[in-house]
């Protein structure tokens, strides 16, 4: 009985990690944009010798993360979803995620760079992201980091998770989620 109970608990805990949210239809609604946490890059933060533009000094996607990004991109394309621009953090794991999606032209956006562990200016970057979103013309996707997305939306994300957002009366509102497990 104890073994069976342990297995059932483990399955219940694992289920949300493999489940896919399927709010795909929300992307066709006016004003809805996508903001994604980069795909799976094991670990936390970056090494002390982190250098922007030098991927060998950064925490990067592993093969599961690359597979996750490709699968999400394929799922978007299968549904006919493409973006006019895919803005990305300049961190290698975010840029690689954005490129592997293959859903639109990838453009570096420093305001999406990580503010984890005191990097960047969280308040200023969040404000500038709100301005970018307000001025967005066409279908927009952004690839960033958990801390930046939480600061913008008030919601945490898992690796590779996409939040579907729009401007609301009280700021950015989350209207849906998409997750393709690694």
Automatic annotation (TrEMBL):
Signal peptide: 1-21
Keyword check for Signal: yes
Family matches, as SUPFAM superfamilies: Phosphoglycerate mutase-like
Pfam families: His_Phos_1
Signal is among the record's keywords: yes
Keywords of the record: Signal
CDD domains: HP_PGM_like
Record-linked Gene3D superfamilies: Phosphoglycerate mutase-like
Name of the molecule in the record: Histidine phosphatase superfamily (Branch 1)
